[in-house]
Amino acid sequence: MDSTARIAATLEMALRDAKLPRRTVQERRDVIGLGLDDAMLLLAPKATKEQLEQLVERYRYHWLKPEAPVTLLFEGVAEALGTLQQQGYWLAVATGKSRTGLDRSLAECGLPEQLFVTSRCADETRGKPNPQMLEEILEETGLQPGDAIMLGDSSYDLEMAKHAKMHSLGVLTGVHDEARLWQQEPLAVLDSVADFPDWLLRA
């Protein structure tokens, strides 16, 4: 999903509402992919417990308010996911979003829930780069780590896969550059998730 600008702007509004020091666009972008609690702690390391709770609440308020901008998929992603499902691959989501945030984002971009066999959100289990999300997905689906591939657009995604002993692929539509993605030893770094079906044919 093309959500980087929206997340960064929402983080700025939350910091303002909580009367905490402003952070640069790059600092706000760099925490994207983490769960909210972990992201807020990095952005406001000197904040009190009450301030961090307010920061999370204000982020959720701005993200979910009716007039918030819609999150859209990158070009070709919906078609790629449909192709993978038709070919018999199981698709799952492991995200730093809350369950409410994920449900809203899927509805906004028009992806049907039945496209995914399961999903895990940061408010349901331990957040990235801890591997618990992926381990729970593997357990639920009855798969071994070697039977699955994690696609991620942040180093946190790929680090999570490494901790779960799962292969990974980086994609360049997120906030971390190619060099940073390669540090987590993915099998490859693609321009977009839309390129994944073709990569599978060549692999």
Explain what this protein looks like in three dimensions.
- The structure is a single chain.
- The protein contains ten helices and five strands; from the N terminus they run αααααβαβαβαβαβα.
- The chain is mainly alpha-helical.
- The strands form two sheets. The chain has a three-stranded parallel β-sheet with strand order 3-4-5. A two-stranded parallel sheet has the order 1-2.
- Strand 3, helix 8 (about 155-165) and strand 4 (about 165-170) form a beta-alpha-beta unit.
Q: How many domain units? A: 2
The general outline is: globular
Fold-level CATH name of the largest domain: Rossmann fold
CATH superfamily of the largest domain: HAD superfamily/HAD-like
How does the helix and strand content classify structurally?
mainly alpha
What is the percentage of strand-forming residues?
A: 5-15%
CATH class of the largest domain: Alpha Beta
Count of individual helical segments: 10
Terminal CA distance: 25 Å
Mean pLDDT: 94
Order of helices and strands: HHHHHEHEHEHEHEH
Q: From the coordinates shown, what is the CATH architecture of the largest domain? A: 3-Layer(aba) Sandwich
What's the gyration radius in Å? Answer: 17 Å
Largest sheet: 3 strands, parallel
Strand order across the largest sheet: 3-4-5
